[in-house]
Amino acid sequence: WLHIMFNKSLFIFGLGLEENEVFLRWLLIQRAKYSRMYNRPLHGWYVGKDIKPGKKFFLEQLGFEVLEISDYNILYQTLETL
Q1: 7: number of CA atoms within 13 Å, CB side?
Q2: With contact defined as beta carbons under 8 Å apart, do 62 and 31 qualify?
Q3: DSSP per residue over the chain, as a string?
Q4: 13-70 per-position pLDDT tens digit
Q5: Would you say the C-alpha torsion 34, 56, 19, 69 has a positive or negative sign?
Q6: Cβ contact 65:44 at 8 Å
Q7: Residues 48/74/76/11 CA torsion (nearest 10 deg)
Q8: What burial class does residue 59 get, using C-beta atoms within 10 Å of its C-beta: 0-12 exposed, 13-18 middle, 19+ buried?
Q9: Of 12, 55, 63, 78, which has the fewest beta carbons less than 10 angstroms from its beta carbon?
Q10: Among candidate residues 62, 72, 60, the one with its CA nearest the CA of residue 14
């Protein structure tokens, strides 16, 4: 799973990335360092509801596009049509 984490685009949905999830935050920081060190741009998307400005800033600095939604049901309905 480390190969996927460091070499593929990530879509994060349903993960809070709260302050107590230090290991996941550290892993995302290492992913960004790896990307810069080898000049391999990695893409990422984070989907959430009521995202705090600090978390949004953190994720954007790591190269993630933050997608804020107001209702998860709309997302589920959209995914069903794909």
Answers
A1: 4
A2: yes
A3: -HHHHHHS-EEEES----TT-HHHHHHHHHHHHHHHHTT----EEEEESS--HHHHHHHHHTTEEEEE-S-HHHHHHHHHT-
A4: 888 888 888 999 999 999 999 999 999 889 999 999 889 999 999 999 999 999 988 8
A5: negative
A6: yes
A7: -30
A8: buried
A9: 78
A10: 72
Query: What six digits make up the tokens of 32?
Result: 């960004």
Give the integer Cα–Cα distance in Å for 7 and 50. 29
Amino acid at 72: Y
Strands 64-68 and 44-48: parallel
Q: Which residue is it, tokens 């800033």?
A: 57
Sorting pLDDT into bands at 50, 70 and 90, what band is 6?
Answer: very high
